C-alpha cells in the first residue's frame, strides 16, 4: 500500500522561511533603535541596561536571522512506492559444472 505524503511533513517554503527571518531581524533592530533613543533619556543604572541592549542586540539579531531551520527538522517522505533492489543471482552452478567437466590440470 502506498503511503501518501502529508503536507505537514514538508519543510516551509524558502519564501516563507526568508519572510520569517526578515521579520525577526526587523523586530530586533527596531528594539535596538528604541534602546539607542533611550540612551539620551534614561539616567542611572538603567543607562547600562539600555546600552547593553543597543550593543548586544545586533549580534543576537544576526544569529536569529541566520537560523534557517527555525525548529525541528521534518522528515520528508518520498512520494511513490519504494522499489526493492535484489542482488544479481550468482552463477555458481555454471562455474561448478565447468570445473568438474575436466578442466582439472
TrEMBL record:
Keywords attached to this entry: Membrane, Transmembrane, Transmembrane helix
Region Disordered, residue ranges: 78-105
Pfam families: DUF3099
Residue stretches spanning the membrane: 22-40, 46-65
Domain of life: Bacteria
Entries under InterPro entries matching the protein: DUF3099
Keyword Transmembrane helix: yes
Name recorded for this polypeptide: DUF3099 domain-containing protein
